[in-house]
Amino acid sequence: MSQTISGFLSEHLSTSQAIGASNKEWLTYGTLRELSEKVKTFLRKSGISKKDRVAIVLPNGPTMASAFATIAQCAITAPLNPSYREDEFNFYLDDLKAKAIVVNEGYDGAASVAAERLGIKIIRLLENDRIAGLFSLMGDENEELLEDEVVSENDVALILHTSGTTSRPKIVPLLQSNVAASASNIAKSLSLSSSDRCLNVMPLFHIHGLIAAVSASLSVGASIWCSSGFNALSFFSNLDRAKPTWYTAVPTMHQAILARSDRNSKIIKNNPLRLLRSSSASLPAQVMRDLEESFSAPVIEAYGMTEATHQMCCNLLDKQKPGSVGKPAGPSVRIADEADDYLIDGTGEVVISGNNVTPGYENNIDANQKSFFEIEGKRWFRTGDQGAFDEDGFLYLTGRLKEIINRGGEKISPLEIDSILLDHPEIDQVVTFALPHPKLGEEVAAAVVLANDSKCDDKDIKSFAKERMADFKVPRCVVILDEIPKGATGKMQRIGMAEKLGLL
Q1: Which of 435, 424, 426, 449 is nearest to 477 (CA)?
Q2: Do residues 110 and 85 make contact, with C-beta atoms less than 8 angstroms apart?
């Protein structure tokens, strides 16, 4: 398969359905390729080269899918969460050094305010009323086209931020070859073909939706039916409309779907799925079994992360082990010593190597030195997850070595939350930590020491946070203490904090 996005899109029948949505005609592969050429011409007339970064801030749906698929062929895409606050957009757009931002026509929210402040070109997108995913772009164009450039497998297609162990998120560049390799790996794992159709419920600013749902489907000439976002109340009506063969989701979504499956058994029976896929967080074994029983289809749990362009391991279509994230599915997956750079048998840090792995964090020498090492002729990436293989070669994750909070698949840096809360004039100390949650896996919690004579309470702190960060980052539990418990070395230890405070 071709090692670029444009390459794998060129291989499919022009009349085949590519992207669909409720109450709209299907966008065909032929029309998608025509749209790609129009987008490239517009961007080149707007002074945007293949090395320039274009932020995309669009609501979930077919247009977000096609915007990514077309722009990523000729420039560097940077999808951003539309729910970010203005301060967050200021940071991400500046950190990305974005040349332009794509927003809907008529949008005047936080993203465009931040872009104007930073002097970033704003490109307006006008959706077609009739055909799903079809759009036109509007903005200032130059009279002369930039010289056309051939986009190669070594050019960056996608940039995402990932939460790190410092307050500053790390920039993860993903090459055309990374995207193509991961799309191919997922398609192979699931035996996807042109006859498959994915019902997408995942947010398309996230690696899971962009690669597993959109890119993997497009790589084999399959179709994607795009919802406007996940809503458990509308999932089954969308299932009935879309007639998919599969969908992919995070565990919290699966649990919400499962809770409504009995009352929608007729729709399930009339729209049989070939498989269900789960990734981004651990799926409880009981949920997996109940989903399989309700849908009469296998539930394929996979293991992914941004630095791997999503997928690393995947359970098999003909064999699933509840509690396991499956077998290596594309990259080489091994176990390394947690402190030193060598490979071991038994339990240790999960490491990966392959053509789907990012070449490294951008402008972050320290993180790259800590995260990558070379041995046995390969470059290995440390995932920060602890695990071990069983006798059948299935990987089981046994813990996390990093302090990142995984809230339903959203990765949150505790130090980022610390730094924001410390801006509160009545907070002297804060430590953000993970609180176990029955559905989300983990929830954000914070232990706080207030300034002397402060009358501040947990509601005040949460309100302060809501004004400065996306909703999913806001601590749901705020504990006000006289002193934050410390470890033997005198340091505040996030891991195990919930237990220390008696919150379990």
Answers
A1: 435
A2: yes
What is the distance between the alpha carbons of residues 298 and 369, in angstroms, rounded to a whole number? 40
Q: For residue range 7-35, list pLDDT tens digits in order.
A: 999 999 999 999 999 999 999 999 999 99
Along the chain (504 residues), what's the average pLDDT of each consecutive run of 10 residues?
90 97 97 97 94 97 98 98 94 96 96 97 97 94 75 97 71 98 98 98 95 98 96 95 97 90 96 96 86 97 96 96 94 95 95 98 94 96 94 90 83 84 88 89 92 89 94 94 69 77 86
Rounded Cα distance between 29 and 422, Å, is: 50
For 52-62, what is each residue's pLDDT tens digit?
999 999 999 99
For Cα atoms 68, 69, 75, give the angle at the middle one, nearest 5 degrees: 70
**The one-letter amino acid at 106:** G
Element (H, E) at 291: helix 285-295
Q: CA 419 to CA 202: how far, in whole Å? A: 29
Burial status of residue 488 (CB atoms within 10 A of its CB: 0-12, 13-18, 19 or more):
exposed
DSSP characters over 188-221: HHTT--TT-EEEE-S-TTSHIIIIIIIIHHHHTT
Residue 428's H or E segment, with its range, is strand 427-437
Pick the closest to residue 473 from 89, 163, 231, 228 (CA basis): 163
The first and second tokens of residue 419, run together, are 């730094």
3-class SS at 5? helix
504 vs 500: CA distance, rounded Å: 9
Structure tokens at 113: 């305010």
3-state DSSP assignment of residue 14 = coil
User: How many helices (H) and strands (E) would you count in the chain?
Assistant: 16, 27
d(CA 205, CA 162): 12
Classify the C-alpha dihedral 392-393-398-404 as positive or negative: negative
pTM: 0.87
What lies within 8 Å, CB to CB, of 379 at 6+ separation is 353, 357, 372, 373
DSSP states of 332-398 as a string?
EEEEE-SSSS-EESSSEEEEEESTTS-S--TT-HHHHHHHEEEETTEEEEEEEEEEEE-TTS-EEEE
Q: Which domains, and CATH codes, for the chain? A: 5-299 (3.40.50.12780), 405-500 (3.30.300.30)
Helix (H, G, I), strand (E, B) or coil at 266: helix
CA distance 495 to 498: 8
**Through-space distance between the first and last CA atoms of the chain, rounded to whole angstroms:** 49
